[in-house]
Design brief:
The complex is a heterodimer of chains A (about 400) and B (about 140). Chain A is an alpha/beta fold. Chain A is about 40% helix and about 15% strand. Chain A has two domains: about 140 residues, Aspartate Aminotransferase, domain 1 (Alpha-Beta Complex); about 240 residues, Aspartate Aminotransferase, domain 2 (3-Layer(aba) Sandwich), CATH 3.40.640.10. In chain A, the strands form three sheets. Chain A has a seven-stranded mixed beta sheet, with helices on both faces. Chain A has a four-stranded antiparallel beta sheet with strand order 9-10-13-12. Chain A has a two-stranded parallel ribbon with strand order 1-11. In chain A, helix 1 runs antiparallel to helix 9, helix 4 runs parallel beside helix 5 and helix 9 crosses helix 13. Chain A is globular. Chain B has one domain: Sufe protein. Chain: A. The radius of gyration of chain B is 14 Å and the shape is globular. The two termini of chain B are about 20 Å apart. Classes of the chains: A alpha/beta (about 400), B alpha+beta (about 140).
Chain lengths: ~400, ~140
C-alpha cells in the first residue's frame, strides 16, 4: 500500500537514516560528556566520538580531519567562510566574486560585507544556470580575495564547473569558497581534485540530523585561515567557539560514512526515478525543464508548466505530495524565484514551476502516483486558465498590455 | 499555510468555469492581473436587456487557490444580481466568506476589479459611460 503523503522535497531537508539515529542515541544519555573536558572519561569519550566523526566526514570529501570545522549548519558555514576570509585577508584586498543564483545565506552575507566596505561582483548565470567562465576570468582583479560560487544549486540542481572556477581563482591568487550543501553526500566531491579552499556543507541534507554542519578549511597549498565569527573558548582551532554538538556530530559522521558507501547505488536508483518522472511530465504540452540537464544533481528536477500557476498547481495534490514551487504567491512580495528569473525565465514561467527533489527512500510507486497527480492537476487547471485559452486561440500573451497590480 | 475549507471547496469544485461570447453585446468581460504577478482573472457577465439582471457569469483564472476561489465565489454572487447590486460587491466580503489570510487579500481585490472591469465593458458596449471606482481595500 502506498503511504501518503509522499516527500519529494529532499533539497529542503532529508529524513534521518535510521542507522544515523542509532549511532547518535548513546550520546544523549550515557556518553553525554563535553568534548572539551580534558580531565575525565566523559570528556575523553565525547572527544573520541567527535574525532571519529571528523574522520568519517573528511573521508567523504577527500580532506584531512584537521580541516573540518564543525558549525551549526551551512548558513553559519557560509557566514564564517565568507566573512572570515574578508576579515582575515583584508590587507590583500576587498573584492569578492559571487553569482546571482547563490543561496540567500551567501548573497546576504556578501551584501552585509558591502556595507562594511567590500566590493562584490555578482556574476549573472547563463540560461542553463551555469556561470560563464570567461566572465569570471574578466571579473578577477588584483584586489580579488575570494570567489564564492556554489557547487550545486538548490532550486534547479545544476552543478557549476567547480574545477575550472577553482583554477581561475588560484591563477589570480584568490581563494575559492563553495557552498556545497546540495552536493556533498549526493555526488562525489573531492576538495583536492576540485581545488576547493573553503567549503560549507550540512548534515540534514544528507540524511543526518539538523543543527550540525561543517566548514572545510584547507591547511596546505595554501594554508587558509578564517577569522572567527563566534568568540569564546577557542574550539575548532580557534575558528569556531562553542561546545560541540556531540550527538549531532556523531550523526553527521555516520551520515557521511553511509553517503560514501551508498552513493553509487543511491544515484543509480534515484536518477532512474527522476528521469522517469521528468520524461512522463514532459509529455504534457508546454512544459519546460529548467537548468542544464547534463550538469545536474541526480535527484532534482525543476519543471515549469506554462499557463498554470505553481501554488495553485500544488494545491491540487499537496495533501498527498510535498514539494516546492518557484512561485512566491505565499510571500507578501509576489516575487517569484530569483534563481529562475536569473536564468532569464519570464516571471510567468517562474511562477509556473515545481521543484521535485527525490531521495534515498523514494519509490517507483510514489513516482507513478506523482506523475498521475501532477498531470491530472495541470490539465484540470489549464481548462480553468485564461492564458491557456488565449494560447490555444493563438493570441500572443506577451503582446497584451497587462495592468500591473 | 493551510487553506480554509471554503477555499479548498471552490478550488476542488469551481463554480462557473467557462467562456461567454465576448463579442456579444449582452456580455461584459473583465480581464485583470498579469502573468508576471502570478494572477490573471477573466470574469464575464451576461446581462438580460429587458430585466437588467445578470443571468450568467463565468470565469477563468490563472493563479493560486485563493485566486481561483475568489473568482469562483464572485461568479456565484453575481448571478441574479442587477448591475447596480453587482457594483457593490466588496473585496472584503470575499475575504470574509473565504476566510482569506492577509497575504491573500490581493486575490479578492483582483476579483473585485474583475467584476468592475466586466461591468464597464458591458456599459461601454451598450453606449453607457464607464463608472469610476474608488481604490478597493488592499
Amino acid at each position: 500500500m502506498l503511504k501518503l503523503p509522499i516527500y519529494l522535497d529532499h533539497n529542503s531537508t532529508t529524513p534521518m537514516d535510521p542507522r544515523v539515529l542509532e549511532a547518535m542515541l548513546p550520546y544523549f544519555l550515557e556518553n553525554f560528556g563535553n568534548a572539551a573536558s580534558r580531565n575525565h572519561s566523559f570528556g575523553w569519550q565525547a572527544e573520541e566520538a567527535v574525532d571519529y566523526a571528523r574522520e568519517q566526514i573528511a573521508q567523504l570529501i577527500g580532506a584531512d580531519p584537521k580541516e573540518i570545522i564543525f558549525t551549526s549548519g551551512a548558513t553559519e558555514g557560509n557566514n564564517l567562510g565568507i566573512k572570515g576570509v574578508y576579515e582575515m585577508y583584508a590587507s590583500k584586498g576587498n573584492h569578492i566574486i559571487t553569482s546571482t543564483t547563490e543561496h540567500k545565506a551567501v548573497l546576504d552575507t556578501c551584501k552585509h560585507l558591502e556595507k562594511l566596505g567590500a566590493e562584490v561582483t555578482y556574476l549573472e548565470v547563463q540560461p542553463d544556470g551555469l556561470i560563464d567562465l570567461k566572465q569570471l576570468e574578466a571579473a578577477m582583479k588584483p584586489t580579488t580575495i575570494l570567489v564564492a560560487i556554489m557547487y550545486a544549486n538548490n532550486e534547479i540542481g545544476v552543478i557549476q564547473p567547480v574545477k575550472e572556477i577553482a583554477a581561475i581563482a588560484k591563477k589570480h591568487g584568490a581563494l575559492f569558497f563553495t557552498d556545497a550543501v546540495q552536493a556533498v553526500g549526493k555526488i562525489p566531491v573531492d576538495v583536492i581534485a576540485d581545488g576547493i579552499d573553503i567549503m560549507s556543507f550540512t548534515a540534514h541534507k544528507m540524511y543526518g540530523p539538523k543543527g550540525v554542519g561543517a566548514l572545510y578549511v584547507r591547511r596546505k597549498n595554501p594554508r587558509v585561515k578564517v577569522t572567527a565569527q563566534i568568540d569564546g573558548g577557542g574550539h575548532e582551532r580557534g575558528m569556531r567557539s562553542g561546545t560541540l554538538n556531540v550527538p549531532g556530530i556523531v550523526g553527521f559522521g555516520k551520515a557521511a560514512e553511509i553517503a560514501k558507501t551508498d552513493m553509487a547505488g543511491d544515484t543509480e536508483r534515484v536518477s532512474k526515478l527522476r528521469d522517469k518522472l521528468e520524461n512522463a511530465l514532459k509529455l504534457i504540452d508546454e512544459t519546460y525543464v529548467n537548468g542544464n540537464p547534463a550538469h545536474r544533481l541526480p535527484h532534482v528536477s525543476n519543471i515549469s508548466f506554462k499557463y498554470v500557476e505553481g501554488e495553485g498547481l500544488m494545491m491540487g495534490f499537496n495533501k498527498d505530495i510535498a514539494l516546492s514551487s518557484g512561485s512566491a504567491c505565499t510571500s507578501a512580495s509576489l516575487e517569484p524565484s530569483y534563481v529562475l528569473k536569473a536564468l532569464g525565465l519570464g516571471d510567468d514561467l517562474a511562477h509556473s514551476s515545481l521543484r521535485f527533489g527525490l531521495g534515498r527512500y523514494t519509490t517507483e510507486e510514489q513516482i507513478d502516483f506523482t506523475i498521475k497527480a501532477v498531470t491530472d492537476t495541470v490539465l484540470k487547471l489549464r481548462e480553468m486558465s485564461p492564458l491557456w485559452e488565449m494560447f490555444k486561440e493563438g493570441i500572443d500573451i506577451d503582446a497584451i498590455q497587462w495592468a500591473h497590480h | 499555510m493551510a487553506y480554509s475549507d471554503k477555499v479548498i471547496d471552490h478550488y476542488s469544485n469551481p463554480k462557473n468555469v467557462g467562456t461567454l461570447d465576448k463579442a456579444s453585446k449582452s456580455v461584459g468581460t473583465g480581464l485583470v492581473g498579469a502573468p508576471e504577478c502570478g494572477d490573471v482573472m477573466r470574469l464575464q457577465i451576461e446581462v438580460d436587456e429587458a430585466t437588467g439582471l445578470i443571468t450568467d457569469a463565468k470565469f477563468k483564472t490563472f493563479g493560486c487557490g485563493s485566486a481561483i476561489a475568489s473568482s469562483s465565489l464572485a461568479t456565484e454572487w453575481l448571478k441574479g444580481k442587477t448591475i447596480d447590486e453587482a457594483v457593490k460587491i466588496d473585496n472584503m466580503d470575499l475575504v470574509e466568506e473565504l476566510n482569506l489570510p492577509p497575504v491573500k487579500i490581493h486575490c479578492s481585490v483582483l476579483a473585485e476589479d474583475a467584476i468592475k472591469a466586466a461591468i464597464n465593458d458591458f456599459r461601454v458596449k451598450n453606449g453607457l459611460a464607464e463608472l469610476v471606482f474608488e481604490q478597493s481595500h488592499v
